[in-house]
Amino acid sequence: MQTKVANFPYGTKNPYQDMMYSACSPEFTLSAPREVSFAQFANPDFRAAHRIIHLHWDDRLFRIVESDDTSPLFHEVKRGLERYRENGGRLIWTIHNQAAHSQAELTDNFRQIRQQLTQMSDLIHVHTPHAARHMISEYGADSEKIRLIPHPSYLGVYEPTEVTLNRSAPANQPIRFLAFGAMRGNRDLDKLHEVARKLTNRGHSFELSVVGKVFRSGRRLMRRMQVNPNVTVISDRVPDDEIPTIFSQSHVYTLPSMNTFTSGTAMLAQTFGLPIIGPDIDPHKHTTPEACHDLLYPAQNPRGLIRTMMRVMEMSKDELNEKRRACLQFAVARQPAHISGQLKQALAELT
């Protein structure tokens, strides 16, 4: 019997959910109801059509803001989910972020909503061991509910797998660094700007591309970065068909953020063979192959980023290619169909 799994919200611009469900059929199919009010969760007909609800990006779904009370929208959702579960429906919840995108820190409102979702969920899906520890320590999640299923790579999503795996590495002079994705303040791009400025002033030969939608809070920083002749900024969302070219022309992905929780862009970079430079925090160590962990610098070292970038610029072609091969092997191990199979096993527990 086929089970429809209603995903809320469904990301039309993000292939993540399609990747996660790519090998779940025929037993499970991703359903993305478009205009369903949360009150309809309580409707027995909705439960009959969708035996499982899969929640994602709860900070966006419930429009979480700091206030004296939890989101009024969440109260409506909670009532609907409670009736849905009373009717026999099951709930799985994927943890994508530690805090809301719009907030640097956890707020009381955010905690209250997550606390209640923790109690209501039948299964809690996390991508890394550190995320599991966070849900247990911060929200008292029952470890028996938690399922560790890594973030998939993007092999076969933007181009055929064989094209990605058989592409030749770009010439390694000059070394080209890349930062990619939505440019929000929590990515610590000011550190990357300062390091690029110092490297340029010291006469180093390198290129840095900063690619992705820039929000208002980051526009001033992007203007400052563009002054550097070694830096190129593309401040708009890149069409999907251009993603392989952008990544395949680069050598290394820079991720200086200390606030990373789950990085889909890190998996995207490694899909195209780009090792990650970043602080040695658990989220980065859990999302990179061990052969590349030497590019994760001590988190509290203020010179870690610049020293690691300089080290990469001095690498031989063979050493850089070893890192590239390790990333491609990592991407193969985490290809969407393999990771989707693990989700399928978790969903089977709910039927």
Shape assignment: globular
Biggest sheet architecture: 6 strands, parallel
How many strand segments?
A: 12
Rg on CA atoms, Å: 21 Å
Share of β-strand residues: 5-15%
Poorly predicted runs are 64-68
Provide the structure class.
Answer: alpha/beta
Summarize model confidence as the mean pLDDT: 90
Measured between the Cα atoms of the first and last residue, the distance is 10 Å
Strand and helix order: EHEHEHHEHEHEHEHEHEHEHEHEHHH
Order of strands across the widest beta sheet?
Answer: 2-1-3-4-5-6
Number of helices: 15
Helix content: 25-40%
Give a structural overview.
The chain has 351 residues and is α/β, with parallel strands linked by helices. Helices cover 40% and strands 15% of the residues. The chain contains 15 helices and 12 strands. The strands form 2 sheets. Strands 2-1-3-4-5-6 form a 6-stranded parallel beta sheet, sandwiched between helices. The protein has a 6-stranded parallel beta sheet with strand order 9-8-7-10-11-12, sandwiched between helices. The chain starts with a strand and ends with a helix.
